[in-house]
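Supplementary notes for students who missed Thursday's class. We covered one full example, reproduced here. Read the sequence, then the structure, then the short commentary at the end.
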Amino acid sequence: MRTKRIWNYVTTGCIVILVTACSLPSSLVEKNENKKTPEGYKINNPQDTVNTAKVNWKEFFTDPNLVGLIDTALHNNQEYNIVLQEINIARNEVRARKGEYLPFVGIGASAGVEKPGKYTTQGAVEENLNIKEDTRFPEPLPNYALGLNASWEVDIWKKLRNAKKAAMYHYLSTTEGRNFLVTNLIAEIANSYYELMALDNRLEILKRNIEIQQNALEIVRMEKQAAKVTELAVRRFEAEVLKNRSHLFDIQQSITETENRINFLVGRFPQHIARNSQTFTDLPLDSIHAGIPSQLLQNRTDIRQAEFDLAAAKINIKVAKANFYPSLHISAGVGYEAFNTKYLISTPQSLLYTVAGDLMQPLINRNAIKAYYYTATSKQIQAVYNYERTVLNAYIEVANQLSNIRNLSRSYDLQSQQVAALTQSIDISVRLFRSARADYMEVLLTQRDALDSKFELIETKKQQLNAKVDVYRALGGGWN
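Structure (token representation):
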């Protein structure tokens, strides 16, 4: 009768555990990502699948000095090396997760001594059992043990395996983060390198312009001696020369800072950056093949990183759900134990073994488990929005840079004509001034306009080269 009652209690307890395990909190809806992209970019042929992103960066950049800087940066850049260690950390996390669903086995040995009090349960045993004096326990009582022990959480609901899979996706995400850093690092070095070459050209143009203004100043001084102009004209030309000579130091400071920025990206202390700035205006602007927007899903490493983060977030929901189910732990041990070392490995007298299984199910106060589940679901929805935002941002970046390249090309052509016209107007204004058919302000303003137009032309050329680099980066090139 008693056995039947105990069996009923056990059966009722198991039913309660199963019912509780099935009573998950109110189901939360997981959000699915939208992977659709437009068929093409507005300014290119949507059927052209040739993509510049597939070109290796050593082929995309032809300047040997720039290639050398990038190659050095990929070995010495501190941020890049920090990310490499993040990858190692993520890889170790995968290894740790893998070990969690395998049995833990250890070997151990112990030695101890014990002297129980006479008026304790253990100390009174010998007195109550009337054990003979020559067969009593040694006092104090030594104890020696040697054995193996094992423990294992049976992964019934795949909680541990899913956790390992989520760690694997996190590792892959970290790897794509490294690739994304490489893409941006290459682009930043290239843009800074072209900025440095542009500054060199601005400096050279300014020096030549100062020579022209110095010659004009001498002409004005001679005209003053001939009483054709006043002292005001001389002072205005002198001020213009001094202003431009002062501007030389501003450009030189910008050159120093740009060189140091490149050296920082390369991972070295400041030194001269080798370059051939005389070829700056002749640098080719090869045609860019944007391919189709759907290729961004494979070429853009930030999109791939967001995709792996999303996959990990989905699996983490499964891990969170598994916390509501019963968990089964099995433990076992085998070894020897004796109070004297000469009996320690006596078999079977000193042999001992244990086997135990624990089935645990959370019944009351499951708020922490619920919170973990709700958080995992919210993170999955967050990861979906992050993925869709990354795809949208990638498309817009490409579209903007393609439009930028086209508009800069048109602007550069017109500015080249402007520079040619203003350069000719300098000689014309000087001749007219010497023949008293133009005043000194016309000469001064013409020189200013010519200098500004040359600066603008250099700036537009730099923007063209930067746009070429940026569209390469936006398409997902540089990391392979």
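Commentary. The longest helix spans residues 367-434. The chain has a mean pLDDT of 88. If anything here is unclear, bring it to office hours.
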